Amino acid sequence: xxxxxxxxxxxSTLSKKKGKTKFYFNDLAKILEAKPRDAKKIVxxxxxxxVLEFWSSGSTSMYGLKGAGKQAAAEEGD
Amino acid sequence: MPKHETPMLDQLESGPxxxxxxxxxxxxxxxxxxxxxxxxxxxQDVCEDILGVLELSYKHKRTHWKHGGIVGxxxxxxxxxxxxxxxxxxxxxxxxxxxxxxxxxxxxxxxTEYLRQLCDLWEFRGSGITNMHGSTGDIVFxxxxxxxxxxxxxxxxxxxxxDLGGSGSNLRTPSDCVGEARxxxxxxxxxALCYDLTMTYQDELHRPAFxxxxxxxxxxxxNCCVASIARAxxxxxxxxxxxxxIDQEAVxxxxxxxxxxxxxxxxxxxxxxxxxxxxxxxxxxxxxMWMEGKELKIDNKECNRCMHCxxxxxxxxxxxxxxxxxxxxGAKAPILDGAQMGSMLVPFIKAEAPYxxxxxxxxxxxxxxxxxxxxxxxxxxxxxxxxxxxxxxxTELKPDPRMVQEPRSNPYIFWKEEEVEGxxxxxxxEFRKYHQR
Lengths: 78, 437
Prior knowledge:
The complex is a heterodimer. In chain A, 53% of the residues lie in helices and 13% in strands. By secondary structure, chain A is an alpha+beta fold. A two-stranded antiparallel ribbon of chain A has the order 1-2. Chain A is globular. Chain B is an alpha+beta fold. Chain B has 3 domains: 7-159, Alpha-Beta Plaits; 175-240 and 324-418, 2-Layer Sandwich (Sulfite Reductase Hemoprotein, domain 1), CATH 3.30.413.10; 245-318, 2-Layer Sandwich (Alpha-Beta Plaits). Chain B is built from 15 helices and 15 strands. Chain B has helices at residues 7-12, 20-33, 46-60, 112-125, 146-159, 190-200, 202-206, 228-231, 248-256, 276-279, 308-312, 356-372, 379-386, 388-395, 428-434, and strands at residues 65-67, 80-81, 83-85, 99-102, 129-132, 139-142, 175-176, 216-219, 234-240, 245-246, 289-292, 295-298, 317-318, 323-329, 343-349. In chain B, the strands form 5 sheets. In chain B, strands 7-8-9-14-15 form a 5-stranded mixed beta sheet. In chain B, helix 2 (20-33) runs antiparallel to helix 3 (46-60). The termini of chain B are far apart. The chains are: A alpha+beta, B alpha+beta. Chains A and B meet through helix 3, strand 1 and helix 4 of A and strand 2 and helix 12 of B.
């Protein structure tokens, strides 16, 4: 799967999920139908391009579409 | 007059130990006076508010922190942990109170100049409150606001040559003991290996793609000063495969009282004359030591590296010369299934740069865990779920008696059909020739 195709797939799948804005890395790898190491390359690039963003509880990390979810607005800037 | 009354916290100061409450109060006072005219970038009374919110938590018996967030520095998925207070009107100074993990130097050696630079940066852009060190080993900066994060990161990486540590589903900041720099028990250069793996696995440290946290810890000898065996998903513990070196003259010097046992560490009380039989030989867990006349003997093949004899008589007994390390895997704290100690995976491996053999094992384990691990499943839990045998398969290591802690305590290693001559099928008539029904 080329990068643009993968990007499209991630955006369309994640934006369809109702009531859920944060996803485990494994969820993304499943969407991409890729091995973890290949999926990581794509996911990292999506973060670099600010399509995705990291979320961390401190112990666990998750990914979300940039700006999605309740917390995003509250955390901007101030 | 403090900003908030804190009677319960004040009570914590009354014990005999150093108190974090006193420390925070001291910092609060110093910030209020601001004798160095620092242009504080976050509220000056942050330390008063942290005491206030903590007192309130004690009163309510519940936390007033919200957990986690999207804060971080660009490109990094770890190193910053978002913390928000759920009573921001009451405690505006700690409405944002993010934690930063700073990758500690190997062996935790610093110069005072470096520490001062770090603390100056943190006074200026953070609360001034640090934790030396967090349980992962990092230097922990407690409390700053979101706009300060990139600024701090820029200063640290460009001026102090200092990186952030790991948090979240990442490789956590690798942590090591002082090793050969200060300790004669070190069986390998812990700092060299720790630094090499830290640099090799930058991507794993900063970009989370693991099912959960993963920790490397490096102990130079089985005394395990960083407690890797109890805490690290992969622990590297120094060992030797030849014999403990014995200086018989020094043994006699201990017996005669010229040398103090444990290098004098217990001399504060009168324990009586040193008794080698009672204090060393009888305490050997594998009973592999004895005296033959004036000679101390050790049956080295029975030694399980408990280190007791070497710790008691460091001038007489020394680690062997053929040194390397053991790799143990799967230790963790008790969130699921209780705490687990590390299981022996590689009994002995040489620790020599560029550490290719070690890296090969690490990467095979990661490939397996990344593919098979459930979300938030530690390596030790995956090992328990799929079995130690599976781990041996993925690492392509052969089973070894040293991997068995004691009979029946470890998962069984089963034969597979392809490993058995003739497979599972047998000629029943041939069998009956020798065995009656």
